[in-house]
Amino acid sequence: MSLAVALRHAQGAFRLDVTFEAPPGITVLFGRSGSGKTTIVNAVAGLLRPDAGRVVLRGRTLLDTAAGIALPPHRRRLGYIFQEGRLFPHLSVRGNLRYGRAFAPRDARPADEARIVEMLGIGHLLDRRPAALSGGEKQRVAIGRALLSAPQMILADEPLAALDEARKAEILPYFERLRDEVSIPILYVSHAAAEVARLATTVVALQDGRVVGQGPAEEVLGDPMVTPAGVRAAGAMLRAQVVRHHADGLTELDAGGVPLFLPALDLAPGQGVRLRIAAQDVILSRDRPEGLSALNILPGRVEALRPGAGPGMLVSLATPAGRVLARVTRRSAETLALAPGMTCHAVMKSVAIAPGDIGGN
Protein backbone atom coordinates (compact mmCIF):
# COMPACT_ATOMS: atom_id res chain seq x y z
CA MET A 1 0.00 0.00 0.00
CA SER A 2 1.18 3.56 -0.71
CA LEU A 3 -0.24 4.99 2.52
CA ALA A 4 -1.11 3.40 5.87
CA VAL A 5 -2.93 5.50 8.48
CA ALA A 6 -3.96 4.75 12.07
CA LEU A 7 -5.16 7.71 14.15
CA ARG A 8 -6.89 8.40 17.45
CA HIS A 9 -7.78 11.92 18.50
CA ALA A 10 -10.23 13.66 20.80
CA GLN A 11 -11.43 17.19 20.15
CA GLY A 12 -14.15 18.31 22.53
CA ALA A 13 -16.96 15.78 22.31
CA PHE A 14 -15.67 14.45 18.97
CA ARG A 15 -13.68 11.20 18.96
CA LEU A 16 -11.68 10.07 15.93
CA ASP A 17 -10.54 6.45 15.73
CA VAL A 18 -9.62 5.32 12.21
CA THR A 19 -7.39 2.82 10.46
CA PHE A 20 -7.15 2.54 6.70
CA GLU A 21 -4.79 1.95 3.79
CA ALA A 22 -4.65 3.81 0.49
CA PRO A 23 -3.27 2.22 -2.71
CA PRO A 24 -2.15 4.26 -5.75
CA GLY A 25 -4.79 6.44 -7.38
CA ILE A 26 -7.33 8.70 -5.68
CA THR A 27 -8.45 7.59 -2.25
CA VAL A 28 -11.50 9.60 -1.22
CA LEU A 29 -12.37 10.25 2.41
CA PHE A 30 -16.15 10.33 2.05
CA GLY A 31 -18.66 11.43 4.67
CA ARG A 32 -20.81 14.22 5.99
CA SER A 33 -19.42 17.37 7.58
CA GLY A 34 -18.11 16.55 11.04
CA SER A 35 -17.20 12.94 10.23
CA GLY A 36 -13.45 13.57 10.65
CA LYS A 37 -12.25 13.96 7.06
CA THR A 38 -10.30 17.22 7.45
CA THR A 39 -8.92 16.12 10.82
CA ILE A 40 -7.41 13.07 9.12
CA VAL A 41 -5.90 15.08 6.26
CA ASN A 42 -4.40 17.65 8.64
CA ALA A 43 -2.90 14.88 10.78
CA VAL A 44 -1.35 13.29 7.68
CA ALA A 45 -0.03 16.70 6.59
CA GLY A 46 1.49 17.41 10.01
CA LEU A 47 -0.79 20.40 10.62
CA LEU A 48 -2.42 18.60 13.57
CA ARG A 49 -0.74 16.39 16.17
CA PRO A 50 -3.14 13.54 17.04
CA ASP A 51 -3.32 12.02 20.50
CA ALA A 52 -2.00 8.75 19.08
CA GLY A 53 -1.26 7.48 15.62
CA ARG A 54 0.98 6.23 12.89
CA VAL A 55 1.28 7.41 9.28
CA VAL A 56 3.54 5.60 6.81
CA LEU A 57 3.90 6.80 3.22
CA ARG A 58 5.68 4.51 0.76
CA GLY A 59 7.61 2.88 3.56
CA ARG A 60 8.63 6.21 5.10
CA THR A 61 7.30 6.95 8.59
CA LEU A 62 5.83 10.45 8.83
CA LEU A 63 4.26 9.96 12.25
CA ASP A 64 4.60 7.42 15.02
CA THR A 65 3.55 8.82 18.37
CA ALA A 66 4.65 5.65 20.20
CA ALA A 67 8.18 6.01 18.82
CA GLY A 68 8.27 9.80 19.21
CA ILE A 69 8.39 10.43 15.45
CA ALA A 70 6.53 13.44 14.07
CA LEU A 71 8.08 14.96 10.97
CA PRO A 72 7.27 18.67 10.51
CA PRO A 73 5.04 19.52 7.52
CA HIS A 74 7.89 20.80 5.33
CA ARG A 75 9.74 17.48 5.65
CA ARG A 76 6.79 15.26 4.78
CA ARG A 77 6.99 16.06 1.03
CA LEU A 78 3.25 16.45 0.56
CA GLY A 79 1.39 18.75 -1.81
CA TYR A 80 -1.73 20.31 -0.26
CA ILE A 81 -4.64 21.65 -2.35
CA PHE A 82 -7.07 23.70 -0.26
CA GLN A 83 -10.70 24.64 -0.91
CA GLU A 84 -9.53 27.99 -2.23
CA GLY A 85 -6.54 28.23 -4.54
CA ARG A 86 -4.53 30.32 -2.03
CA LEU A 87 -2.32 31.72 -4.77
CA PHE A 88 0.07 34.62 -4.19
CA PRO A 89 -1.74 37.66 -5.61
CA HIS A 90 1.48 39.55 -6.42
CA LEU A 91 2.87 36.71 -8.57
CA SER A 92 1.81 35.66 -12.05
CA VAL A 93 0.60 32.14 -12.71
CA ARG A 94 4.13 31.28 -13.85
CA GLY A 95 5.53 32.76 -10.63
CA ASN A 96 3.09 30.76 -8.48
CA LEU A 97 4.00 27.55 -10.28
CA ARG A 98 7.72 28.13 -9.86
CA TYR A 99 7.22 28.96 -6.20
CA GLY A 100 6.06 25.37 -5.82
CA ARG A 101 9.08 24.09 -7.72
CA ALA A 102 11.37 25.97 -5.32
CA PHE A 103 10.21 23.63 -2.53
CA ALA A 104 11.16 20.45 -4.37
CA PRO A 105 13.99 18.62 -2.56
CA ARG A 106 17.36 18.86 -4.25
CA ASP A 107 17.57 15.11 -4.66
CA ALA A 108 14.07 14.85 -6.16
CA ARG A 109 13.59 14.23 -9.84
CA PRO A 110 12.53 17.59 -11.34
CA ALA A 111 8.90 17.71 -12.39
CA ASP A 112 8.24 18.31 -16.07
CA GLU A 113 6.79 21.81 -15.93
CA ALA A 114 5.74 21.84 -19.59
CA ARG A 115 3.88 18.54 -19.21
CA ILE A 116 2.06 19.72 -16.08
CA VAL A 117 1.08 22.99 -17.74
CA GLU A 118 -0.27 21.05 -20.74
CA MET A 119 -2.10 18.49 -18.60
CA LEU A 120 -3.88 21.23 -16.64
CA GLY A 121 -4.58 23.41 -19.69
CA ILE A 122 -3.07 26.56 -18.17
CA GLY A 123 -0.50 27.52 -20.81
CA HIS A 124 -2.52 30.56 -21.89
CA LEU A 125 -2.73 31.77 -18.27
CA LEU A 126 0.99 31.90 -17.42
CA ASP A 127 1.31 35.70 -17.55
CA ARG A 128 -1.93 36.47 -15.70
CA ARG A 129 -2.27 37.40 -12.04
CA PRO A 130 -4.67 35.40 -9.78
CA ALA A 131 -7.17 38.28 -9.69
CA ALA A 132 -7.81 37.72 -13.42
CA LEU A 133 -8.56 33.99 -13.02
CA SER A 134 -11.84 32.16 -12.50
CA GLY A 135 -12.25 29.85 -9.50
CA GLY A 136 -11.64 26.79 -11.63
CA GLU A 137 -8.52 28.30 -13.17
CA LYS A 138 -7.14 29.15 -9.73
CA GLN A 139 -7.63 25.55 -8.61
CA ARG A 140 -5.83 24.23 -11.70
CA VAL A 141 -2.89 26.51 -10.93
CA ALA A 142 -2.94 25.33 -7.31
CA ILE A 143 -2.78 21.72 -8.52
CA GLY A 144 0.17 22.59 -10.77
CA ARG A 145 1.99 24.33 -7.94
CA ALA A 146 1.52 21.27 -5.71
CA LEU A 147 2.79 18.90 -8.42
CA LEU A 148 5.88 21.02 -9.12
CA SER A 149 6.99 20.68 -5.49
CA ALA A 150 7.77 17.00 -6.34
CA PRO A 151 5.52 15.61 -3.57
CA GLN A 152 5.28 11.97 -2.63
CA MET A 153 1.53 12.41 -2.19
CA ILE A 154 -1.17 15.01 -2.89
CA LEU A 155 -3.72 16.03 -0.26
CA ALA A 156 -6.90 17.69 -1.56
CA ASP A 157 -9.33 19.00 1.07
CA GLU A 158 -12.70 19.46 -0.69
CA PRO A 159 -11.03 21.32 -3.57
CA LEU A 160 -14.34 21.86 -5.39
CA ALA A 161 -16.43 22.98 -2.42
CA ALA A 162 -15.99 26.71 -3.11
CA LEU A 163 -16.87 26.41 -6.82
CA ASP A 164 -20.25 26.73 -8.52
CA GLU A 165 -21.58 23.87 -10.64
CA ALA A 166 -20.15 25.27 -13.89
CA ARG A 167 -16.65 25.59 -12.41
CA LYS A 168 -16.89 22.10 -10.89
CA ALA A 169 -17.77 20.67 -14.30
CA GLU A 170 -14.76 22.54 -15.72
CA ILE A 171 -12.21 21.18 -13.25
CA LEU A 172 -13.39 17.58 -12.66
CA PRO A 173 -11.82 16.31 -15.91
CA TYR A 174 -8.44 17.64 -14.73
CA PHE A 175 -8.70 15.62 -11.52
CA GLU A 176 -9.56 12.61 -13.68
CA ARG A 177 -6.37 13.19 -15.67
CA LEU A 178 -4.46 13.58 -12.41
CA ARG A 179 -5.80 10.21 -11.25
CA ASP A 180 -4.93 8.49 -14.53
CA GLU A 181 -1.62 10.13 -15.45
CA VAL A 182 0.20 10.93 -12.19
CA SER A 183 1.86 8.07 -10.34
CA ILE A 184 1.73 9.51 -6.81
CA PRO A 185 -1.19 8.70 -4.48
CA ILE A 186 -3.87 11.32 -3.83
CA LEU A 187 -5.90 11.64 -0.61
CA TYR A 188 -9.06 13.53 -1.52
CA VAL A 189 -11.75 14.81 0.87
CA SER A 190 -15.37 15.03 -0.29
CA HIS A 191 -18.95 14.83 0.93
CA ALA A 192 -20.40 14.86 -2.62
CA ALA A 193 -21.42 11.43 -3.92
CA ALA A 194 -21.11 12.44 -7.58
CA GLU A 195 -17.49 13.56 -7.09
CA VAL A 196 -16.66 10.32 -5.34
CA ALA A 197 -18.18 8.18 -8.10
CA ARG A 198 -16.34 10.08 -10.82
CA LEU A 199 -12.92 10.26 -9.22
CA ALA A 200 -12.35 7.60 -6.58
CA THR A 201 -10.12 4.60 -7.06
CA THR A 202 -10.63 3.72 -3.40
CA VAL A 203 -13.26 4.98 -0.95
CA VAL A 204 -12.87 5.31 2.82
CA ALA A 205 -16.38 5.98 4.13
CA LEU A 206 -16.51 7.86 7.44
CA GLN A 207 -19.24 8.42 9.97
CA ASP A 208 -18.86 10.06 13.39
CA GLY A 209 -15.09 9.62 13.40
CA ARG A 210 -15.16 5.93 12.41
CA VAL A 211 -14.48 4.04 9.18
CA VAL A 212 -17.74 2.35 8.15
CA GLY A 213 -16.51 1.03 4.82
CA GLN A 214 -13.37 0.97 2.69
CA GLY A 215 -12.32 -0.58 -0.59
CA PRO A 216 -12.73 -0.13 -4.35
CA ALA A 217 -15.22 2.59 -5.27
CA GLU A 218 -17.72 0.19 -6.89
CA GLU A 219 -17.88 -1.99 -3.79
CA VAL A 220 -18.25 0.76 -1.20
CA LEU A 221 -20.68 2.96 -3.14
CA GLY A 222 -22.80 -0.07 -4.03
CA ASP A 223 -23.05 -1.35 -0.45
CA PRO A 224 -26.54 -0.62 0.93
CA MET A 225 -25.21 -0.82 4.48
CA VAL A 226 -22.70 2.00 3.85
CA THR A 227 -24.36 5.40 3.33
CA PRO A 228 -22.00 7.99 4.84
CA ALA A 229 -23.74 10.88 3.06
CA GLY A 230 -27.21 9.62 3.99
CA VAL A 231 -29.70 7.32 2.27
CA ARG A 232 -31.01 10.16 0.10
CA ALA A 233 -27.55 10.47 -1.49
CA ALA A 234 -27.10 6.71 -2.01
CA GLY A 235 -26.13 5.54 -5.46
CA ALA A 236 -23.93 2.96 -7.15
CA MET A 237 -21.08 3.38 -9.63
CA LEU A 238 -20.95 1.49 -12.91
CA ARG A 239 -18.22 1.17 -15.52
CA ALA A 240 -19.14 1.05 -19.19
CA GLN A 241 -17.72 1.65 -22.65
CA VAL A 242 -18.95 3.90 -25.43
CA VAL A 243 -20.30 1.84 -28.35
CA ARG A 244 -21.77 4.40 -30.76
CA HIS A 245 -23.51 7.74 -31.07
CA HIS A 246 -27.03 7.69 -32.52
CA ALA A 247 -28.59 10.29 -34.79
CA ASP A 248 -31.35 11.01 -32.27
CA GLY A 249 -28.85 12.48 -29.79
CA LEU A 250 -28.26 9.42 -27.62
CA THR A 251 -24.97 7.66 -26.86
CA GLU A 252 -25.07 3.89 -26.50
CA LEU A 253 -22.87 2.27 -23.87
CA ASP A 254 -21.94 -1.33 -23.21
CA ALA A 255 -22.20 -2.07 -19.49
CA GLY A 256 -21.22 -5.69 -18.94
CA GLY A 257 -22.90 -6.73 -22.17
CA VAL A 258 -26.08 -4.73 -21.46
CA PRO A 259 -26.81 -1.60 -23.57
CA LEU A 260 -27.34 1.68 -21.74
CA PHE A 261 -28.49 4.87 -23.45
CA LEU A 262 -27.53 8.36 -22.24
CA PRO A 263 -27.84 11.85 -23.71
CA ALA A 264 -24.97 12.46 -26.15
CA LEU A 265 -21.51 12.17 -24.60
CA ASP A 266 -18.43 13.90 -25.99
CA LEU A 267 -16.45 10.66 -25.93
CA ALA A 268 -15.21 8.50 -28.78
CA PRO A 269 -16.38 4.90 -29.29
CA GLY A 270 -14.21 2.56 -27.26
CA GLN A 271 -13.60 5.04 -24.44
CA GLY A 272 -14.35 3.99 -20.88
CA VAL A 273 -17.01 5.70 -18.79
CA ARG A 274 -17.77 5.83 -15.07
CA LEU A 275 -21.32 6.73 -14.18
CA ARG A 276 -23.22 7.11 -10.95
CA ILE A 277 -26.77 5.80 -10.78
CA ALA A 278 -28.69 7.49 -7.95
CA ALA A 279 -30.77 5.00 -5.96
CA GLN A 280 -33.77 7.31 -6.03
CA ASP A 281 -33.78 7.22 -9.86
CA VAL A 282 -34.13 3.44 -10.10
CA ILE A 283 -37.49 1.67 -10.43
CA LEU A 284 -37.79 -2.08 -9.77
CA SER A 285 -39.90 -4.62 -11.62
CA ARG A 286 -40.23 -8.35 -10.97
CA ASP A 287 -40.67 -9.08 -14.69
CA ARG A 288 -39.06 -7.34 -17.62
CA PRO A 289 -41.38 -4.40 -18.25
CA GLU A 290 -42.90 -3.65 -21.65
CA GLY A 291 -44.36 -0.46 -23.08
CA LEU A 292 -42.25 1.93 -20.98
CA SER A 293 -40.57 5.15 -22.11
CA ALA A 294 -37.49 4.26 -20.04
CA LEU A 295 -34.77 2.83 -22.28
CA ASN A 296 -32.43 1.35 -19.68
CA ILE A 297 -33.47 -1.99 -18.19
CA LEU A 298 -30.94 -4.08 -16.29
CA PRO A 299 -31.77 -7.67 -15.32
CA GLY A 300 -30.49 -8.58 -11.90
CA ARG A 301 -30.74 -10.51 -8.67
CA VAL A 302 -31.59 -9.05 -5.28
CA GLU A 303 -28.56 -9.19 -2.98
CA ALA A 304 -29.71 -7.34 0.14
CA LEU A 305 -32.42 -5.09 1.55
CA ARG A 306 -31.83 -2.36 4.12
CA PRO A 307 -34.90 -0.91 5.82
CA GLY A 308 -34.66 2.78 6.65
CA ALA A 309 -35.86 4.65 9.73
CA GLY A 310 -38.93 5.86 7.80
CA PRO A 311 -41.05 4.28 5.07
CA GLY A 312 -38.11 3.72 2.72
CA MET A 313 -35.90 0.77 1.91
CA LEU A 314 -32.61 0.44 0.03
CA VAL A 315 -32.35 -2.57 -2.28
CA SER A 316 -29.08 -3.87 -3.73
CA LEU A 317 -29.14 -5.73 -7.07
CA ALA A 318 -26.34 -7.65 -8.75
CA THR A 319 -26.57 -6.99 -12.50
CA PRO A 320 -24.29 -7.78 -15.47
CA ALA A 321 -23.32 -4.10 -15.42
CA GLY A 322 -22.38 -4.16 -11.73
CA ARG A 323 -24.15 -3.54 -8.46
CA VAL A 324 -27.15 -1.17 -8.60
CA LEU A 325 -29.00 0.39 -5.66
CA ALA A 326 -32.71 1.24 -5.68
CA ARG A 327 -34.55 3.33 -3.09
CA VAL A 328 -38.15 2.18 -2.78
CA THR A 329 -40.87 2.25 -0.12
CA ARG A 330 -41.36 -0.68 2.23
CA ARG A 331 -44.84 -1.02 0.80
CA SER A 332 -43.41 -1.47 -2.69
CA ALA A 333 -40.88 -4.01 -1.43
CA GLU A 334 -43.65 -5.98 0.28
CA THR A 335 -45.93 -5.78 -2.77
CA LEU A 336 -43.12 -7.15 -4.95
CA ALA A 337 -42.21 -9.68 -2.25
CA LEU A 338 -38.56 -8.69 -2.63
CA ALA A 339 -36.11 -11.08 -1.01
CA PRO A 340 -32.42 -11.94 -1.44
CA GLY A 341 -31.85 -14.24 -4.39
CA MET A 342 -34.94 -13.36 -6.41
CA THR A 343 -34.68 -12.04 -9.97
CA CYS A 344 -35.61 -8.45 -10.60
CA HIS A 345 -35.16 -5.68 -13.16
CA ALA A 346 -33.75 -2.20 -12.55
CA VAL A 347 -35.33 0.47 -14.74
CA MET A 348 -33.65 3.86 -15.34
CA LYS A 349 -34.59 6.83 -17.50
CA SER A 350 -31.77 8.01 -19.76
CA VAL A 351 -32.31 11.67 -18.81
CA ALA A 352 -32.25 10.87 -15.08
CA ILE A 353 -28.47 10.44 -15.15
CA ALA A 354 -27.05 13.93 -14.72
CA PRO A 355 -24.00 15.06 -16.73
CA GLY A 356 -22.13 15.61 -13.48
CA ASP A 357 -22.55 11.91 -12.67
CA ILE A 358 -20.69 10.82 -15.81
CA GLY A 359 -16.92 10.83 -16.13
CA GLY A 360 -14.07 9.33 -18.08
CA ASN A 361 -12.36 6.14 -17.00
Note down, in words, how this protein is organized.
- The protein is an alpha+beta fold.
- The protein has helices spanning 37-45, 93-101, 113-120, 135-148, 165-181, 193-199, 217-221, 330-335; strands at residues 3-11, 14-22, 26-30, 52-57, 60-64, 69-70, 78-81, 153-157, 186-190, 202-207, 210-216, 235-245, 250-255, 258-263, 272-278, 282-285, 296-307, 312-319, 322-329, 343-348, 358-360.
- The strands form four sheets. The chain has a six-stranded mixed beta sheet with strand order 7-8-9-3-10-11, with helices on both faces. Strands 2-1-4-5-6 form a five-stranded antiparallel beta sheet, covered by helices on one side. Strands 14-13-12-15-21 form a five-stranded antiparallel beta sheet.
- A hairpin with a 2-residue loop joins β10 and β11 (210-216).
- The longest helix is centred in the middle third of the chain and has 17 residues, at 165-181.
- The radius of gyration is 22 Å and the shape is globular.
- It starts with a strand and ends with a strand.
- The model has no long low-confidence stretch (mean pLDDT 90).
Broad structural category: alpha+beta
Could you report the average pLDDT, rounded to the nearest whole number? Answer: 90
Q: Tell me the domain tally.
A: 2
CATH architecture of the largest domain: 3-Layer(aba) Sandwich
Secondary structure layout plus pairing:
Blueprint lengths: L2 E9 L2 E9 L3 E5 L6 H9 L6 E6 L2 E5 L4 E2 L7 E4 L11 H9 L11 H8 L14 H14 L4 E5 L7 H17 L4 E5 L2 H7 L2 E6 L2 E7 H5 L13 E11 L4 E6 L2 E6 L8 E7 L3 E4 L10 E12 L4 E8 L2 E8 H6 L7 E6 L9 E3 L1
Parallel strand pairs: 3-9, 3-10, 7-8, 8-9
Antiparallel strand pairs: 1-2, 1-4, 4-5, 5-6, 10-11, 12-13, 12-15, 13-14, 15-21, 16-20, 17-18, 17-20, 18-19
GO molecular function, one term: molybdate ion transmembrane transporter activity
EC number: 3.6.3.29
Pfam family, one: ABC_tran
